[in-house]
Structure formats: structure tokens, C-alpha cells
Specification:
307 residues, alpha/beta, TIM Barrel, 8-stranded parallel beta barrel, two-stranded antiparallel sheet, 11 helices, globular
Length: 307
């Protein structure tokens, strides 16, 4: 099982140079991958391309780009560019997004999200694999009057931030894996891994990657950091998909899913995710306890990754 981290601050946007510095530190610590959320500031595939080119050997990914307000042709161009720039170390993450952000920011109705996800993936896969598409669906059209393949770009892995039954089914059929967030080991083992694996098997696809995103900090002040986690993660408790994942995890709130404590405690949590079916674990919010705790967390994750 490989281990990675998200390269973002829980309180502010970091300059590009600082992000590259952190990426070098992560790779030097022995981590396998660095991931970037899609915000209204940086474009995550572009940032991933810069970091991946600056830090050879480090895998980079986006987690995740909402399908509302995007088009498969444009996302394919972004992903293939990042893949070519990094020499095949880029991983594309997609998401359904939320009703509030979709309707408030884009002015788009948040309608038929599962249908849009299915059509988006159906159009995107051939674009990434062959540079061509001829898709005419109910919700979108994607055709290529000119070739859309980037020279030298390896096939781009596609993962979906899926946690609900319908999204998991579509992801198993059409994607390479899933990126569940705030889904603890119990939710993974009982609900997420079986559902997406069954869908992949039924579609004749390989076993899916399960990239679990986990808030986690190695710290001597577990109680204080958990309080900060509760505040930082509270917004997810109002989003139905995350509410369900937290409930299935057996936690009272989002902070209850976080891996917080000393090295032994956090290492045990990582093992629980592996045993629950995670193929990769990516720690988020590692800066909640400050720089010393962040470095301590990355050091442990690097040791676990090498071991």
C-alpha cells in the first residue's frame, strides 16, 4: 500500500514555490504521492504538472475536479498535459461536487448528477486512451473534429470521489478507482470496497484502486488537534454524501474519522485502512497541529511507506 499527502494549507492558499518546496520535502520523507484539491484559486492539474515536473519521482494527483461546469474535452486536455509534463505520474480525480457550490458559483442546476457522471466518464475515457471521442448523450456531447491526443502522454488513471451506491456503481464500471474522503475503515470494508469492486467485476474491469483520503496528524496534543479538526471539517457534516460516510464509519462527526495521536496510534489507523481494502492512503489536514506536527506526521508516513 502506498502513502501520500495533500499539499494544501487548511487555512490559506500557498504560493507555488512553497508548494514545490513542500513537495520536495514529502518526497524526501519517503512519500509516494502528493495531491491537490480543486478550488476557485489554483487550477489543480496545472499545479500538479508544475510540482510533478519539479520533483521527479513524486506521483501527483487532483482530488477532485467537479464534473459540473466542466467538459470532458477540456478536462482531457488538462489531464494529458499534466501526464506528459510529469512523465506518466499524474492521476486525475473527478467529483460530483455539491449542490450549493454548483448552483451558487456556476449558476447551474444540480440535476441528474449520476447521469452526468456516467456520460462524462463515457466521453472522457476514449479521449484519454485514443485522443478521439464521438459521444452524443442526453446531458453532454463530446466529439473530436481534430485529434485530441497529447504526444508522449501515457494513459491517465481516472478516479472518482464516490461514496454513495450509485456513484460507486458508475465508478466501478467506468473509472480506475475511487477517492473516498471521511470514510473510515468500517465504511470502506462494509460498503465502499464491496460495491465498487462488484461493479468493476461485472463490467469486466480490473480491481479498482481504493485511495482513501484521511485527515491525520501525529501529535502529543491529540485533544487539542481533534478540536481543530472538528472546526475545520464541520462544513462536510452538512453535505449528504459525507454525512452518510461518517455515519457508516460509526463516528459522531467528521473529526471522529480523523487519525490523530502518537505514532503508534496513527500507524495502527493506517493498518486498519489497509485491512479494510484501501490500496492507497492519502493524509489530509496534516498541518492542523502546526509545522512540527506536520513534519512528524510526514516522517511516520514515509517510514510506513518504505516499510
Amino acid at each position: 500500500m502506498t502513502l501520500g499527502v495533500t499539499l494544501s494549507s487548511t487555512s490559506r492558499q500557498l504560493p507555488v514555490d512553497d508548494t514545490v518546496r513542500l513537495a520536495r520535502e514529502a518526497y524526501g520523507a519517503g512519500l509516494h504521492s502528493a495531491w491537490f484539491g480543486q478550488t476557485f484559486a489554483y487550477d489543480s492539474p496545472s499545479l500538479a504538472a508544475i510540482v510533478g515536473r519539479e520533483v521527479p519521482g513524486l506521483h501527483v494527483g487532483t482530488s477532485a475536479i467537479p464534473v459540473f461546469g466542466r467538459h470532458p474535452l477540456l478536462v482531457s486536455s488538462q489531464a494529458q498535459t499534466a501526464q506528459a509534463a510529469t512523465g506518466g505520474r499524474y492521476h486525475l480525480g473527478l467529483a460530483l461536487g455539491t449542490r450549493y457550490l454548483t448552483e451558487t458559483a456556476f449558476g447551474l442546476p444540480y440535476e441528474r448528477p449520476i447521469g452526468l457522471l456516467r456520460e462524462f466518464l463515457t466521453a472522457l475515457r476514449p479521449l484519454l486512451e485514443t485522443g478521439e471521442a464521438d459521444f452524443h448523450g442526453e446531458l453532454l456531447t463530446a466529439t473530436t473534429p481534430y485529434p485530441a491526443a497529447v504526444p508522449g502522454a501515457a494513459p491517465v488513471p481516472v478516479l472518482v470521489a464516490a461514496m454513495g451506491p450509485q456513484a460507486l456503481r458508475v465508478s466501478g464500471e467506468l473509472a480506475d478507482g475511487v477517492l473516498p474522503f471521511l470514510a473510515g475503515p468500517r465504511a470502506l470494508e462494509r460498503d465502499i470496497v464491496p460495491a465498487v469492486t462488484a461493479a468493476a467485476e461485472a463490467a469486466g474491469r480490473p480491481a479498482p484502486r481504493i485511495v482513501a483520503l484521511v485527515p491525520g496528524v501525529v501529535t502529543a496534543d491529540a485533544e487539542g488537534v481533534r478540536e481543530k479538526a472538528a472546526e475545520a471539517l464541520a462544513l462536510y457534516e452538512r453535505i449528504p454524501s459525507y454525512q452518510r460516510a461518517i455515519e457508516l464509519s460509526g463516528a459522531d462527526g467528521a473529526a471522529g474519522v480523523a487519525a490523530i495521536g502518537d505514532e503508534e496510534t496513527v500507524a495502527a489507523e493506517v493498518r486498519r485502512y489497509r485491512e479494510a481494502g484501501a490500496t492507497e492512503v492519502v493524509f489530509t489536514a496534516t498541518d492542523l497541529g502546526g509545522e512540527e506536527d506536520r513534519r512528524r506526521t510526514w516522517k511516520l508516513l514515509g517510514e510506513l511507506s518504505r516499510g
